[in-house]
Amino acid sequence: MERIRLVCCDLDGTLLNDDKSISKENIKWVRKLKEEKNIPFVIVSGRFYPSVKRISDALSVTGPLSCVNGALLYDERGNEIKSHTLPLETAQKVYSLSNCFNVEMLSVYGKEWALESRNGYLFKKKKPIYITDGTLCSFDDTLGCIPMNKLLFMAEEEEELRGLECIIRKEIGDDVSYYAGSDFLEIMPRNTNKGQAIKDLSSLLSIPLSEIMVIGDDNNDIEMLNLSGVSVVMENADDKIKMLGDYITARNNDNGVAHAIKHFWEDIKND
How far apart are CA 6 and CA 255, in angstroms? Predict the structure, then answer.
């Protein structure tokens, strides 16, 4: 095995407990990476910057942050390094298609987010995670002038989302990236995913992919698990995700990230 010079880690279902807290054991071993090994620990998350930064601060780690499933990369001062955006015409077409369904849409552009209505299903679900207040605006106006990193749709009825996903795939196809769950659908720039995130980090930090260890648990972690030198999957992941792991660590509620770092401790080195 090659040495490990960078650890990239997902948040929800991985570093975070189910109640969205971080265990003392995980904090301890993440900090030891910097203090004893001088190895960067980088969060690679689907969340946007303010949410990711709050968790990074709690860990007392410094370095880049990868947000919005690889669409945005920031340096340790919060300066934007990379931004992958949807072409305006594509974003407008997605929005137009969404008007045929009973869904709510939120857009992410850099460190900001916008919503047409704050009284519906989406806002109540996302506000605790997004931390900051979004902009209340008309998407007919906003999408005409602001490049978007992500369009997020949510609905109480899953069939509304699956219907929207079906028509977007039919009308737009592979010109965008998709990430779907039972109550959400994310539309992002083409080829934007966490695999792109670790490619950007590899270039930024001059660390080859073969010397990167990633830790994840969900479908949006697949690309980075496939590209990394060492792939670690959480015990709480689905079996299809576990098949991608070089090592299956403990559950997120059982300090799985700490267990993974300890397991590979002798292979983690910069010299």
Answer: 19
